[in-house]
Structures are given as C-alpha cells and as structure tokens.
Design goal:
Layout lengths: L7 E9 L6 E10 L4 E6 L5 H8 L7 E6 L2 E2 L7 E4 L11 H11 L4 H14 L15 H13 L5 E5 L7 H18 L2 E6 L2 H7 L2 E6 L4 E7 L11 H22 L6 H4 L2 H10 L1
The protein binds adenosine-5'-triphosphate and magnesium ion.
C-alpha cells in the first residue's frame, strides 16, 4: 500500500450550534503535518466531538476553515473517515461484507473487493473471522471490523472520537497499539478525541489540551516517545505525569473561578475576546 497522509490546516475555526446557544469553540487553529498522530484531550462538553465532526465534513462550522493538502473540507469523503465510540456495523452481514461495503458501493469488481478486504483484515488481525457474523464478535473485535471498514477505503486521515472508551483495559490497550502502528505504517494522519491521559500518551505524536467555555486549544505537548510504548516504561510514566499536570492546570483554572491560570495559557487579547463572547 502506498504511503499516504495529509497536511491538515485549521484556520480560526469557531462554532455555535444556534444563535441562542453558547459558543462551542472559538478561534481554533491547528497545523498538523502529514502522518502526524494528534490527540485532543479535554473535559466533557468542551467541543471535541463537534470539532471532529467539522473536520470530517459532517458539519459546517460557523466560521473558519479546514483544509487538507490545501483542499477545503466541505463534505464527508472516504479520504477522511471517522470512527465512533460504537462501531455501527450491519448486524445481518458477515465481517467480510461489512468491511467491503464501501468498495461494493464504489462498484469494485468482486474479486478485487475480496483481495482488498483480505489484506485489510490481516492489518487488523481478523483474518480468521472473514466469514463470521459480526454479532458473534466481541466489542473489541467489532471495533476492529469498523477500523478495517475505514481502512479499506484507503483514507488519508482517520478521525477517532473516543472509539475505545467502551472497551475493557486489555482490549483497549491492544487496539491503541495497533491503530498507532497501522497509522504509522500507512503514513495516515490520526486526529483523536479523548478524556484519557494514558490514551493520549500511548497514541500521540502531539497532544492538544482543549478547555474552557467556549472551548479553545489552551496547551500543546509533543509526545516524543519511542515505539512501541509500554505503560510501565519510566519515560511513558514521566510523560503521563507531565501531561496530567498540564491538563489539571489548564482545566482547573477554568473551573475554580480564580482566572489566574488561564492567563498563563491564553494571551490577554484572547482572554478579552472570549469574555466579550460570553
Ligand atoms: N446538536 C447539538 N445542538 C446544540 N448543542 C450541542 C449539540 N451537540 C453538542 N452540543 C453542545 O456543544 C458543546 C460541545 O459538545 P461536544 O459533544 O462537542 O463535547 P465533547 O467535548 O465531545 O464532550 P464529551 O467528552 O462528553 O464527548 C456541549 O455544550 C454540547 O451540549
Ligand atoms: Mg464527545
């Protein structure tokens, strides 16, 4: 498979659902190079899912732009695909048919669909389950089918909205490792939203902390650790502690009402402009 991936450029993105609702996020600027794994962490309600929906072209933002290799994202595409918390599979179909459905709709010949699906099932370690009904699979295996269904279309960007949060720790850890290693092997960009600091440290090249109301990127941290990453590795644990402190400082300052720490992470003009909007 060819190396792919995109340069993601998000310019001054802001969103509010209706003119009466509060601003969801404000002045989000992200520049992510080809092949980067970017993890956005933030508390519930700060706007992570909304941001991912905009990135996937599933929702138009109120203002600002998203471009991939200079091309504006305006609609969904198999080139930028989203994985959700629930796998959303077709329960009456086999694994093979679920994974090949996009190719079927794209009118690929049957033989080529089978070859491509077999290749992708190998990537996600489900080669022995091609003929199984998806209902007979565990939650983790179903999420692997959803991953394979995304990968079969050869996306450049995989958007992940807490896709492992419903899984047990063991299953989650193995999927985290596999998704990162597949993305690195194929050169795909990842943008993932999570509450989970461990997940960010295990999967990210770079982490962005989103906080506040309206939500904003308030901090970023390069996660320059070697692969494969093991939870018990001292370097991984040190990075985790560092990110935990950053996350605590960034989000604590938003909730304790003191306002002291927000000044450390936002420039004065930005704080003023947020206050004007709320
Ligand atoms: N369809 C909608 N209409 C109006 N407001 C919405 C809609 N969807 C989300 N919101 C609001 O936008 C804000 C951000 O929601 P979003 O789902 O993006 O947060 P999140 O960071 O993904 O949270 P979580 O971690 O719980 O998934 C919340 O205040 C939410 O109530
Ligand atoms: Mg969400």
């Amino acid at each position: 498979m060819a190396i792919r991936g995109v340069h993601i450029k998000i310019n001054d993105l802001n969103h509010r659902y209706t003119s009466k609702s509060p601003i969801t996020f404000h002045r989000v600027n992200i520049d992510s190079p080809q092949g980067e794994s970017l993890v956005i962490i933030g508390r519930s309600g700060c706007g992570k899912s909304t941001l991912l929906h905009v990135l996937a072209g599933l929702m138009r933002p109120t203002g600002g732009t998203v471009s991939l290799n200079g091309e504006l994202v305006k609609a969904p595409s198999p080139r930028w695909v989203m994985m959700f918390q629930a796998p959303h599979l077709f329960p009456w179909m086999t694994v093979e048919h679920n994974v090949g459905i996009g190719l079927h709709f794209a009118h690929w010949p049957k033989k080529e669909i089978k070859e491509r699906v077999t290749e992708v099932l190998g990537l996600v370690h489900l080669e022995d389950y091609a003929d199984s009904n998806v209902q007979d699979l565990s939650g983790g295996q179903q999420q692997r089918v959803a991953l394979a269904r995304s990968l079969v279309m050869e996306p450049e960007l995989l958007l992940l909205d807490e896709p492992f949060s419903a899984l047990d720790t063991f299953t989650r850890t193995s999927l985290q490792k596999d998704v990162r290693s597949i993305a690195k092997r194929l050169g795909i960009n990842l943008v993932m939203a999570t509450h989970d600091i461990d997940e960010a440290v295990l999967m990210a090249d770079r982490t962005l902390v989103m906080a506040g109301a309206p939500g904003k990127i308030v901090h970023e941290l390069a996660v320059d650790l070697d692969d494969p990453r093991e939870r018990q590795d001292p370097a991984v644990q040190a990075m985790r502690a560092n990110l935990m402190q950053i996350f605590h400082d960034a989000t604590h300052s938003q909730t304790d009402g003191s306002g002291s720490k927000i000044d450390d992470v936002l420039s004065e003009t930005e704080v003023v402009s947020i206050n004007q909007h709320v």
